[in-house]
Amino acid sequence: MTKQQIMEWITIHSKQILDFFLFLIIVIMGAIVKIIKQVKQGVKASWKWFLAEAIVSVFVALLVYGFFDQFLHFNKLFTYMVCAWCGSFSTIFHKRMEDLLGAFFDKLKQLINEKTNP
Question: Where would you find the membrane-spanning parts of this chain (predicted)?
Answer without folding.
Answer: 20-37, 49-68
